[in-house]
Amino acid sequence: MPTASPALLGATRGLLWLFLGLVTVATLIVVAIGGSLAFAWPDVLTHFKDSGVFLDVTTARAPLCFMMLLFLAILVATAYMLRQLQALVASAANGDPFAPASAHRLRRVGWALVVTQAAALPIHWISSRIVATGSDLGSAGGLSLGGVLAILLAFVLAAVFEQGSAMRDELEGTV
Amino acid sequence: MMAIAVKLDDLLLARQMTLTDLSDRIGITLANLSILKTGKAKAMRFSTLEAICTELNCQPGDLLAFEPDG
Question: Which ipTM was obtained for this model?
């Protein structure tokens, strides 16, 4: 039976670790921003006034804090999804991609993607109301066609893997 | 237990052949033949059936029997 190329699996493994590292860094940045908003608001307020990014700086604190929470939810969901993908790659590397757990993992990836898309919608709504036009932050979040397709793909693949796993079970014990 | 009985033991005994001999001759592992002999197999390929019948010079009905419970 043909197996996935070890080089391809190795590269995927490396990329997943790289993404996980980037997610960790992004999480630290979001936590730091959230901490500044919570505990160093006067300094942050002065900085924001100078930057000209926000429409009304004085009312931006609460929406920004909520946005940071949503970013954190996206990052946690992304880290969870990457861990599930790592387990899938490990299962493929062991020559057992149609293990029953693989279908569950793909379904979890699908739900993690749902969380990221669901959190991206209010982020866009908030940012478009507090950020001045022309700023990068104003276009943050929102519905992504690629994201919706990825959700569908994950759930369809989960169903395919479930079927594959059932077929493999049927073949077990065949002489 | 399944109601399909595999009578490989009887056939081997009648031909004074061991499971290892059969395994060597038909190219199916001893472990798989053992699963078949002890009735633990869930399914059997036609290719396996053909190989056993060819080697033991028998019909599929000589190898398999339907023995309903009770």
Answer: 0.76
